[in-house]
């Protein structure tokens, strides 16, 4: 079996088990609700609440470097800390990889299989809350090479060498349901015209680990998502598409991938934005 393009960005459960007491390793769990973290998190893991720590009231991603500095500082993370990311939702760790790389953190890795595999193997969990001495973290401005903006996505719709990749559920893609519906009701259902649909969970094995290189190549190429094209993944709020950015760029080595983190949360509210259902 071929190796991933960058296998070094993944750690397995045994590696993490062996490094739980390492003071230079910080395990980060990210979830939508504190309840999922409270009783069954990995020992030493700190908790980031997605709605309050990583997003804004309008569900857009919080990309303010000052806010990120506060989050990492209170988490006891310095520029030299090795961060291992995971969550109870499939692929959460890969999204955090994109998010921290966006702000220049170098030592970030994804727990392959995440919480699901850790628990399935009978490894220790705890309800004890973790606290670490604060640091003085200094983040960089968001790296523009990791993002794509709405205007460029719009312009790409006429290009044959670009793929807009919708990684939401089939029901979201068709406009049948909304994953996150703003209170003002301004969001419309459907997808970006011409967007290729491939739900992000198809890239995972049943145990939550990533599929092989051969399987991933076959999956994406069958939809016309190939390494010679520029790929713009999107989802509801940029998290699942951040995961897809990680898979394409770090596991498969696609050179031209940028996350449309504005995603459907932004596109669906454009007054004159084109939408297909």
TrEMBL record:
CDD domains in UniProt: TST_Repeat_1, TST_Repeat_2
Pfam entry (one): Rhodanese
Rhodanese domain location: 21-127, 158-276
A Gene Ontology molecular function term of the record: thiosulfate-cyanide sulfurtransferase activity
InterPro entries: Rhodanese-like_dom, Rhodanese-like_dom_sf, Thiosulfate_sulfurtransferase, Thiosulphate_STrfase_CS
Keyword DNA repair attributed: no
Keywords per UniProt: Repeat, Transferase
Domain of life from the UniProt record: Bacteria
Reaction catalysed by this enzyme: thiosulfate + hydrogen cyanide = thiocyanate + sulfite + 2 H(+)
Name listed for the protein in its UniProt record: Sulfurtransferase
């Amino acid at each position: 079996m071929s190796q991933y393009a960058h296998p070094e960005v993944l750690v397995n459960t045994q590696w993490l088990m062996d490094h739980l007491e390492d003071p230079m390793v910080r395990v980060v769990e990210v979830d939508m609700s504190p309840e999922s973290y409270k009783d069954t998190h990995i020992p030493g893991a700190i908790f980031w609440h997605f709605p309050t720590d990583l997003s804004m009231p309008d569900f857009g991603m919080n990309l303010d470097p000052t806010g990120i500095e506060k989050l990492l500082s209170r988490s006891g993370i310095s520029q030299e800390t090795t961060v291992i990311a995971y969550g109870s939702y499939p692929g959460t760790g890969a999204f955090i990889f994109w998010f921290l790389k966006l702000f220049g953190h170098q030592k970030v890795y994804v727990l392959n299989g995440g919480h699901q595999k850790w628990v399935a193997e009978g490894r220790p969990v705890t309800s004890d809350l973790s606290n670490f001495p604060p640091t003085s973290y200094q983040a960089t401005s968001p790296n523009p090479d990791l993002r794509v903006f709405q205007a460029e996505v719009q312009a790409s719709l006429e290009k044959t060498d670009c793929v807009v990749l919708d990684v939401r559920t089939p029901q979201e893609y068709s406009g049948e349901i909304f994953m996150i519906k703003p209170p003002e009701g301004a969001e419309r259902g459907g997808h970006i015209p011409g967007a290729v649909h491939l739900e992000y969970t198809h890239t995972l094995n049943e145990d939550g680990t990533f599929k092989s290189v051969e399987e991933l190549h076959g999956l994406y190429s069958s939809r016309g998502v190939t390494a010679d094209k520029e790929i713009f993944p999107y989802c509801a709020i940029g998290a699942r598409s951040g995961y897809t950015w990680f898979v394409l760029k770090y596991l498969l080595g696609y050179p031209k991938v940028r996350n449309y983190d504005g995603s459907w949360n932004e596109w669906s509210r454009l007054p004159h934005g084109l939408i297909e259902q």
